[in-house]
Amino acid sequence: MPGWDIKPDAVRVVLGNTRDKAEKLGEELQAYATTMESAAKWAGTMIQGEAPKDGAFGPVAGALGEFGKNTQDDLRFLIVRSAKSIRGAAEATRCYENGALEMAQNAQSAAAQAPTPKELKGEDQK
Q1: Contact assessment for residue 8 and residue 96, using Cβ atoms and an 8 Å cutoff
Q2: pTM of the model
């Protein structure tokens, strides 16, 4: 776009910081999954005075399992969306530096779109 006036070096700094935070988000989500599993394991059963047996779980463990199942797609969306935005901004900046402003606009527009089902499954990574 003719009106663009960005500072590519500054964009790279911001993208680097954003990438670092996105990687930490991935680590936090892994810890979240582990913590949810542990919480479900130790939530106990409905049998008073008995330790949970393998495969036995009570209502809290069941609720945690349902919660995890129902939020996993949303969490995956956050990770994929973050990566897509970072890649798109980097590509748009490269195009801008090369004077390919139409390509920069196209890269920016593509990055602004929600992840496709293939992207969410990890099948369409560039």
Answers
A1: yes
A2: 0.70
Q: Are the beta carbons of 30 and 5 closer than 8 angstroms?
A: no
Cβ count near 69 (within 10 Å): 9
Q: What is the pLDDT along the chain (126 residues), one digit of tens a residue?
A: 457 788 999 999 999 999 999 888 888 888 888 888 888 888 776 666 666 566 567 788 888 888 988 888 888 898 889 999 999 999 999 988 888 888 888 888 888 888 888 888 887 655
Q: What is the dihedral of CA 21, 24, 29, 33, to 10 degrees?
A: -170
CA–CA dist 40, 54 (Å, integer):
12
DSSP output for 5-48: ---HHHHHHHHHHHHHHHHHHHHHHHHHHHHHHHHHHHT--SST
Task: Give me the half-sphere count of Cα atoms (radius 13 Å) on the Cβ side of residue 46.
Answer: 4
